[in-house]
Structure formats: structure tokens, C-alpha cells
């Protein structure tokens, strides 16, 4: 049976830190990142303060835009992700 999982506060804070560090590494302001993602700078600020409940589409767009590997982010955040071998 599928169980809806919510990230812990620690996981959300870790994710927020990773996003902020990646944005800064790329030399982007919150406003510039928001423009690239077609969203508001307020939303970016909420993500970076662990105040936003993101959907999977926004999460993927954010990771791709910031050039982050989702598997590495999941590991750093503390989310156990099993990856199937030989997926094609």
C-alpha cells in the first residue's frame, strides 16, 4: 500500500540550504532564479526558508535549473531513495 510521506523539518531545512547554496554558486539572485522558473521571488524565498510545500514538477524544474543531481540531493537531504538497476 502506498503511504503519503511528508519530509521532516530537518529534511526541509537541508533541502532549503542546498537550493540556496546552488543558487549562490551559480551567481543568481532570487529574482533571477524566479524569472528562469517563471515563478515569484517570494516563492523562491519560501523554498530557501523551508516554508514551501513543493510539488514534484516544481522540485524537478528547480533541480534542473540549478544543475543539481536529484539522487545526490536526496542523499544530502536525508531521504532514502532506492534506484532500480538497469532501467531503460
Summary keywords:
5 helices, single chain, globular, 0% strand, mainly alpha, 88 residues
Note down, in words, how this protein is organized:
This protein has 88 residues and is mostly helical. It is 58% helix and 0% strand. The protein is built from five helices and no strands. It has helices spanning 9-25, 30-37, 41-48, 56-65, 70-77. Helix 1 (9-25) crosses helix 5 (70-77). The two termini are 25 Å apart.
In short:
By secondary structure, the protein is an all-alpha fold. It has helices at 9-25, 30-37, 41-48, 56-65, 70-77.
Alpha plus pi helix count: 5
Structural class: mainly alpha
From the spread of the alpha carbons, the general shape counts as globular
Helix content: 55-70%
**What fraction of the residues are assigned to beta strands by DSSP?**
under 5%
Contiguous low-pLDDT stretches (5 residues minimum) are none
What is the N-to-C order of secondary-structure elements (H for helix, E for strand)?
HHHHH
Q: Total strand count, please? A: 0
Distance between the termini: 25 Å
Major pleated sheet: none
> What does the average pLDDT come to?
89
Radius of gyration: 14 Å
Amino acid at each position: 500500500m502506498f503511504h503519503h510521506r511528508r519530509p521532516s523539518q530537518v529534511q526541509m531545512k537541508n533541502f532549503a540550504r542546498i537550493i540556496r547554496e546552488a543558487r549562490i554558486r551559480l551567481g543568481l539572485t532570487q529574482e533571477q532564479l524566479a524569472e528562469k522558473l517563471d515563478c515569484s521571488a517570494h516563492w523562491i524565498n519560501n523554498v530557501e526558508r523551508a516554508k514551501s510545500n513543493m510539488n514534484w514538477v516544481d522540485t524537478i524544474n528547480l533541480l534542473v535549473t540549478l544543475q543539481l543531481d536529484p539522487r545526490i540531493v536526496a542523499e544530502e537531504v536525508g531521504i532514502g531513495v532506492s534506484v532500480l538497476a538497469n532501467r531503460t
